[in-house]
Amino acid sequence: MKRILLLAAVALCAMAAGAAEAPDSLKRIVKGRVHHPEMDEKVIVGNDTVNLVLPERNFGRYDRGLFNYLFIPKKQWAFGLMASYGEFDAKDVQVLQALKDFDFDGKQYAIRPSVSYFFRHNQCIGVKFDYTRQEADLGRLAVNLGEDLSFDIHDISYYSSKYSMGVFYRNYVGLGRSKRFAIFNEAALSFGSGSSRFKRPYDGKLRDTRTDLTEVALNFSPGLCMFIMDYLSFNVSFGVFGVHLRNEKQITDGVEEGSRFSSGADFKFNLFNINFGIGVHI
Q1: From residue 258, how far is each of 9, 184, 250 by CA, in Å?
Q2: pLDDT band for position 280 (50/70/90)?
Q3: pTM (global) more than 0.85
């Protein structure tokens, strides 16, 4: 019995010594990340040799075997131009028969130039300028739901324009060895101002209301990036979440009516906030 216990003690000591001298791959497993031969592969970027797979610690998360491939190396500059456009015309759709006359035309467009610098692989910070304009004209809307509910509105228009400037952070996740496709998430803090005009008939007269606003906004926009040439990329992003603080002052027919401070948050997929852009990387 003593001999069996002695052999067991020797075996435990040997196992402990072997664990202390475990190879690096096993140590990575202990840290929560399973080692893969692709993680040791190197690529040449300029005069440097870097990892193809960016090293990341797992911090207790379940390891799904997904890698963040090198997509854009550090010390690069990127110049981008994104734009969006949306339009709605009542002539292109068929609505309920209750709408006897529906004449509406609306559009929204935006342009967003930017410049950014990659301080780490796949991560950049930058500044951008944003100009957005909205136009909506309701020529006439006639609704007939019987004698108790019928109305006719006409000659209503709304226009707005806004300028903003902000800083942003963007983190890319490379999707393959080719360094051609990646997804990204962008967080942007912007400061802007603008104005809008709302015209409508009231008591036989045309009333003109102007609203001046200033705004601070924090927005999060995921997207997809694809290199179509070595130094030229195509980007698509979607606005899905944002918070804002806004101060508005309203003037009607030259007379100040009041002011309002508001705040809010949006968590939704916005069809009018789909942005397409081109980026130049040097």
Answers
A1: 85, 42, 6
A2: very high
A3: no
